[in-house]
Amino acid sequence: STRVLLNARPTGRPTHADFQVETVDLPPLATGQVRVVNEFCSVDPYMRGRMNDVKSYVPPFALGEPLVGAAVGRVVASEADDVAVGDVVLHGDGWRDVAQLDAAAVRVVEEVPGVPTSAFLGILGMTGLTAWVGLTQIARFREGDAVLVSGAAGAVGSAAGQIARLKGASRVVGSAGTPEKVAALVERYGFDAGIDYRAAPIRSQLPDAAPDGIDVYFDNVGGDHLEAALDVMTTGGRVALCGAISAYNATEPQPGPDNMTNVVTRSLTLTGFTLAAYQHHMPEFLAEVGPWVRSGELVFDETVVDAVGDVGRTVDAFLGLLDGENTGKMVVRTA
Ligand code: NDP
């Protein structure tokens, strides 16, 4: 098995020197274990936080130890009764080409014809559920709401905007970091308007894109984006604080909203969430969103980094994710 270790704790934006690739021989399978050839490994923004030595809602990665993360693969050997060779499984031993773990730590998933197994890392998995939970459970979206999504061309954002549209939003506005992504927001994902936050400050562009204000803000970026949103929130608006990626590589304190008094005067609700507490919504999410994916009403994009025979490319995928090289879910093909 070839896998990626955390070599050093990154300062600011990680570099290749923070990672190391090693190849190990796997021991024979013990009773109750399975061996999985990973087809796809996930890289996700939260992994940046786990590379720091700070207490958070997930413990930090250990120095000199293999990185872990979501992966989907096929079972090639099994010493477990309930998992068979050929099963497609989701598990947490990513950042490697072959995983060996207890059958209790894998979940068998049912393949969907015509949908790649990578979708279980994205639209039919963690990021899709995050979008749905943030919108429906945290922001308590109602038909007719005007919705703003930041990080809108990413995995969570592209799903959140489309779910809002399909559930009857009056207007869906998104922001992203390149003209190509902004074009995709409108043309491919069906947003009503897109903002390129690198072209001019988001705060100066948002009022034109949301002339009647925003009822629900789905925040993936924080900082200047949250500040801009607070300007245009309608009375009684709701903000789901999903992530703040603008700060993840920061070494200095980041500018924060200077207009928090709007939270008071407009009776806003800002609610943060981490998906771990909302996993039980998966069946409800799949019942609503699964048919939209099958019918093509909700599209999902993936940016696939090819790491077959070169697991170290997982690092390129992770750095590319932080740099915005992905549209939709960033996934790594390992087989
Ligand atoms: P994405 O697919 O959105 O990839 C990250 C994107 O962030 C990049 O493509 C880039 O797009 C954007 N980005 C990077 N730096 C900045 C910046 N300084 N300002 C604005 N945008 C930036 O990742 P995910 O969909 O997986 O995650 C999106 C957010 O959701 C993250 O904040 C993540 O932490 C959060 N999250 C939270 C969960 C929870 O349980 N609360 C669960 C899952 C995700 P661009 O080109 O537009 O800059």
UniProtKB/TrEMBL annotation:
Kindly give the SMART domains that the UniProt entry links to this protein.
PKS_ER (SM00829)
What the entry lists under SUPFAM superfamilies is as follows: GroES-like (SSF50129), NAD(P)-binding Rossmann-fold domains (SSF51735)
Q: Where is the Enoyl reductase (ER) domain?
A: 12-332
CDD domains named in the record:
PGDH
One protein family per Pfam: ADH_zinc_N
Q: Which UniProt keywords apply?
A: Oxidoreductase
Q: Name one GO molecular function term.
A: oxidoreductase activity, acting on the CH-CH group of donors, NAD or NADP as acceptor
How is this protein named in the record?
Answer: Enoyl reductase (ER) domain-containing protein
* Organism from which the protein derives: Sediminihabitans luteus
